[in-house]
Write a structure and sequence with these properties.
About 10% of the residues lie in helices and about 45% in strands. The chain has 3 helices and 13 strands; from the N terminus they run βαββββββββββαβαβ.
Amino acid sequence: MSDMATAVRALPAREATPAAIAPYGTLIEPGADGTPYGRADAVLDLGRGTPRLYVMRLVARPMRVTGITRHAAVTQCLASTRGEDWFIVLAAPGDPDDAAAMPDPAGIEAFRIPGGTALALHRGTWHAGPYFAEPTMDFLNLELADTNTADHRTVRLDRQFGVALDIVP
């Protein structure tokens, strides 16, 4: 399908809420210290490798999405380190154990993640981003030590489906 024309579609960003994010993961909002574990907490799956928590520095790039990625072995968690708002594009994980699974372009959504919150993606959730307007931003990233080399499947939306998505903040 690489010879097809690419249609650019506007993708308005929704405000992230726990309910809106639920099909894709958990929006982790601030809570009082000592609050017991509950439904507002992410259920983490880090048992398929060595967990890795690091701060990644990203350089701003245009808010055009031409590819979307998923990690089948881990529940990745992201949060801006200085509390800035940021954007992410998400699609339902489907069966994370199905190596041939593809995202549904019609079901892709964009979200504005409020500063001061974190996002824990369900295992296998398709995602693109983080995106932001600042020249650079730093993010806490919890995944596995080999996520970027052994568990990183990207589907090119422009080549596979003939579509690119422009995030509209």
